[in-house]
Amino acid sequence: MRQDQLFETLVALMGNDPFTAHRLSSLTARRFKADKKALEGREINQDFGESLERKTFPKPSCYYQLKVTLKDTSAPCWRRIIIPDTARLSDLHDEIKYRFDYFGARMAQFYWPKERVYIADTEGETCEEYMLVPDYKLSDVLSVGMRLNYTFDFQYFYEHTILVEKELKSPDEVSKRLAMEKGEDPYVLHGDFKDYDDDFDDDLEDEDDK
After folding, report:
1. Which residues are bridge partners to 115 per DSSP?
2. Is 178 helix (H, G, I), strand (E, B) or coil?
3. Of 109, 151, 181, 193, which is least surrounded by CB within 10 A?
4. Side-chain-side CA neighbours of residue 165 (13 Å)
5. Which pTM does this prediction carry?
6. Are 117 and 65 in contact (CB under 8 A)?
7. Cis peptide before 171 (omega within 30 of 0)
């Protein structure tokens, strides 16, 4: 992503605050130069995410047991994720999309007290790749007991809390009695998206009338 593209994206995200956007775009551009993996970008499934089972990773030293909880729902909605420490934030993003049945090319971000990491869609929904700035390896970010946040879609803001519950030597250590998910399709549970779906159905009816 060129710095001018990054600047335009950040201006929109910062509520049209060009001064803050300029500072952040400059910092992020320098980080791109320092982080080869982020500069190259990683292909991310823009439609439905991608299961970790379809990916291969360098040999891990441990696995993280994460509990990802969707906020502001009428009923509890969460998923547990077992992920190797050699996976990256982009892989976690892919798995969250896959497990929560999120659809489409959307802006997203991870953030915790000392960092905020954007997944930048540089060309809207026609873009063939996302870039994650920077695409940290999970072992460089996560620790047991840590909480971080994840936002999917900057129009409707699906907000999540991610809790690092445990470190495991192997996925086989997960108890077969441990619940791995709870809650229905988030599109049903999240009030904003219910309204959005109604508007979308109305638009389709309007198109049929034309």
Report:
1. 112
2. coil
3. 181
4. 15
5. 0.70
6. no
7. no
